[in-house]
Amino acid sequence: MFGGGRKKTKREEFSMGGEAIKTLIGEGCLFEGNLSIASGTKIEGTIKGNIKGHGLVIIGESGRVEGDVESDEVVIYGQVIGNVKCKRLELKKGAVLEGDIQTEILVIEEGAKYEGKCTMTAEEESKLGLESTP
What is the number of other CB atoms lying within 10 angstroms of the CB of residue 104? Predict the structure, then answer.
């Protein structure tokens, strides 16, 4: 009835919120160092370093980031040990965030765990902080 049993294309499977996921760090992968992103990124592996850029960052259920995350929108299903700075942050059921948050919009689902300090910024303040990002 809805979609007629049609299978999703790979492009549809790796998109969320209207933005296509162009970079994928797969489950079992370990990346050590800082990561600069320019578009949608999904992390199912482990990142030991900071993530900075623009676009959507999704930390998947098996994903783990040991470092700070700074981007336009961040959605966490997995684990982040570090600070998060973004315009919109979603902590999904099962997510773990140990660090400080600076955001305009915060959504925390039941079952997510968060320990840290949260600063809700006005839109103007947030734009100033994120525009200086390369």
Answer: 16
